[in-house]
Amino acid sequence: MDFNKLAKQYKDELMYNVLPFWLEKSQDLEFGGYFSCLDREGNVYDTDKFVWLQAREVWMFSMLYNKVERREEWLNCAKQGGEFLMKYGHDGNYNWYFSLDRTGKPLVEPYNIFSYTFATMALAQLSLATGDEEYAEVAKKTFDIILSKVNNPKGQWNKLHDGTRPLKGFALPMILCNLALEIEHLLDKDFLEQRINHCIHEVMEVFCRPELGDLIVENVHTDGTLSDSFEGRLINPGHAIEAMWFIMDIGERLNRPELIERAKNVALRMVEYGWDKEYGGIYYFMDRKGHPTQELEWDQKLWWVHIETLISLLKGYQLTKDEKCLEWFKTVHEYTWDHFKDNEYPEWFGYLNRRGEVLLPLKGGKWKGCFHVPRGLYQCWNILEKLS
Questions:
Q1: 129: left (phi over 0), alpha (psi -120 to 50) or beta
Q2: Residues 288-323: pLDDT tens digits?
Q3: DSSP label of 185
Q4: Is 303 helix (H, G, I), strand (E, B) or coil?
Q5: What is the pLDDT of residues 10-21, one digit of tens each?
Q6: All domains of the chain, ordered by start, with CATH?
Q7: Which residues lie below 8 Å from residue 163, measured CB to CB, with a gap of 6+?
Q8: Residue 275: phi, psi to the nearest 5?
Q9: Are 54 and 61 in contact (CB under 8 A)?
Q10: What is the pTM of this model?
Q11: Distance between CA atoms of 133 and 138, rounded to whole angstroms?
């Protein structure tokens, strides 16, 4: 495998295709923040602003400014989005709304914990880019609120009846693995270590189940036992695989090769489990007992699932030299570039049907913004450069 050639492929796609698209098409220079609902050509088809996608774009351009090149246009893009977030994104007490109208008026209440996690990530990275302490302070305050909500992330907006089938989800401990390292510069060393160890335990001991051959489930009872219900049988291969590169990063940071090895093995297990042997690509949702899922979109192929898988497989190979990671990387790389890259217009498609045909030609919407494609291209380019 020509790592040099691949590194150039990922870098060029990021720098000359994907980033210019978001810089030119997404910025709302009248009201601030970003449009995320962009059609195939980059035209705005809806002006609502989703707080977690606003935050992800602030993080993206701050991170690139901090780690790739100190480009003024990247910093300006991040700063204007950050100011919009600070002004309109929360209720005054750093409870972050889910969505706003174009001018910043709240549309949907702060029910979604991921508005908080990505606001924390964004403002922490923006504080590094600008040296502005206010961003760092708001990031720390928001992180404290996240930790206070860990046992009931949706709070008063939780739809489930209390006490009948108490479940906890994989998504929050998974994201906290990444978030803890992202805001390391803002946290006390002992506290950081404690949080990281808790995250490792939750991800690798509670949700990763040896009795299921190391499959990762999306929900368990609050006492850590498996639930035989729609939610309890649910598996999201992409989520599990993405979490494994977070764990590998932690393993590298803590110098724990055994943790890296296990995470790599779980990633391989989840790729093999989630791969559609008939049409190729990775399923969105699966049931661990093979029953029908309640998610009707279960067999769609999604952009982020495949991009996160590329990162995990490359990291797995880089850190353990397991050839199986490289074999799977080649397979997923070919599928991803053949199916998600739009050869006529910039940025990538997000949603394919099971056969790999484009289902929605959008480049951004309520769930897809300036995040997984550019972050994945950046991560893969970085790892491939080191490998070459």
A1: alpha
A2: 999 999 999 999 999 999 999 999 999 999 999 999
A3: G
A4: helix
A5: 999 999 999 999
A6: 1-26+170-388 (1.50.10.10), 27-159 (1.50.10.20)
A7: none
A8: -75, 130
A9: no
A10: 0.97
A11: 9
